[in-house]
Amino acid sequence: MKNFIKSLLRESLLEDNSNNIGYHVTRTVSIPTIKKFGITSGGAGGNFKNAKGKSFNTEGAVYSFTDIEDAKFWAMKMSLDNKVSPNSGNFSIVMFDKGGFDWYEDSNVAGLAKMLGDLGQTAEFTMNSIPPSNILDIISA
What we know:
With 141 residues, the chain is α+β, with helices and mostly antiparallel strands. It has a single domain (19-140), classed as Heat-Labile Enterotoxin, subunit A (Heat-Labile Enterotoxin, Chain A, Alpha-Beta Complex), CATH 3.90.210. The protein contains five helices and six strands; from the N terminus they run H-E-H-E-H-E-E-H-H-E-E. The strands form two sheets. Strands 1-3-6 form a three-stranded antiparallel sheet. A three-stranded antiparallel sheet has the order 2-5-4. It starts with a helix and ends with a strand.
């Protein structure tokens, strides 16, 4: 019953606030800390590099997508970059309310759109941490 109610709540939030929903991809081992402290800026995400060895992240930023499909693709990319199976459970997607913060286009990831069509155009970042009260759900990637 609890999962059913949670599912209905998630659907309702998505319908009513689709412009205020963000999807943050993270290591699954980070989920307990995120539940307790929120998504903090400047986390371990800075360890992810592009093909040229450059960090994807701006120091002190929280990254997310506004489209769940882009977040799933990014989780798969992170799995492959870390040489683990995309279905290994090593990465999760945190669905959160992004209201109340300034968001900016992430041109590093948005540049992927040139190669992959529309994919990557929903990448964005904020210089704020996301409090635990804004976390709506954890989705297995």
